[in-house]
């Protein structure tokens, strides 16, 4: 099964991060999708209000480069091609396992490409989130 990278959702993501995501999709055995790249300030405020984000200063917002420096990735069900569901402990465990797999490949690809990449799962709560290091880009 192939990943659905959502070209529309990737077009405003920094080309360096986009390249890491595309190469990761080539290497992954399990598919994933890009659920969000560039956000408007209004969308970011909404996510903060809902508790899905903790900052108004997100790298999903357009940066000085003209691109978002962050993207959220989500695993797809290999048979149905639909986003994996969550909500029960068993589903959460599967979801986190798949997000860790994506993160491992993203980090490997980033290392090989010399990209300073950060994973939100390393913060303990934002496993779909990947961003370019603020100081490096």
Give an overview of the whole structure.
The protein has a four-stranded antiparallel β-sheet, with helices on one face. It has four helices and four strands, in the order H-H-E-H-E-H-E-E. The protein is globular. The chain has 137 residues and is an alpha+beta fold. It is 38% helix and 13% strand.
Task: Fill in the keyword field for this structure.
4-stranded antiparallel β-sheet, alpha+beta, 137 residues
Shape: globular
> CA-to-CA gap between the ends?
33 Å
Number of strands: 4
Strand order of the largest sheet: 1-2-4-3
Number of helices: 4
Q: Gyration radius, to the nearest Å?
A: 14 Å
List the helices and strands in order. HHEHEHEE
Q: What value does the average pLDDT take?
A: 92
Biggest pleated sheet: 4 strands, antiparallel
- The portion of residues assigned to helices is 25-40%
Strand content: 5-15%
**What class would the helix/strand composition place it in?**
alpha+beta
Contiguous low-pLDDT stretches (5 residues minimum) are: none
Topology, pairings included?
Layout: H1 7-10, H2 15-27, E1 32-36, H3 41-50, E2 70-75, H4 89-113, E3 117-119, E4 129-132
Antiparallel strand pairs: 1-2, 2-4, 3-4
Briefly say what this structure is.
The protein is an alpha+beta fold and 137 residues long. 38% of the residues lie in helices and 13% in strands. It has helices at 7-10, 15-27, 41-50, 89-113, and strands at 32-36, 70-75, 117-119, 129-132.
């Amino acid at each position: 099964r192939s990943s659905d990278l959502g070209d529309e959702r990737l077009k405003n993501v920094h080309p360096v991060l986009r390249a890491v995501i595309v190469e990761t999709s080539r290497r992954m055995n399990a598919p994933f999708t890009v659920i969000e790249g560039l956000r408007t300030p209004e969308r970011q405020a909404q996510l903060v209000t809902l508790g899905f984000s903790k900052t108004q200063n997100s790298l999903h917002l357009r940066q000085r480069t003209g691109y978002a420096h962050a993207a959220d990735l989500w695993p797809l069900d290999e048979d149905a091609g639909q986003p994996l569901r969550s909500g029960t402990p068993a589903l959460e465990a599967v979801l986190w396992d798949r997000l860790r797999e994506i993160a491992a490949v993203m980090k490997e690809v980033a290392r090989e490409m010399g990209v300073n990449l950060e994973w939100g799962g390393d913060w303990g709560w934002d496993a779909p989130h990947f961003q370019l290091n603020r100081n490096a880009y």
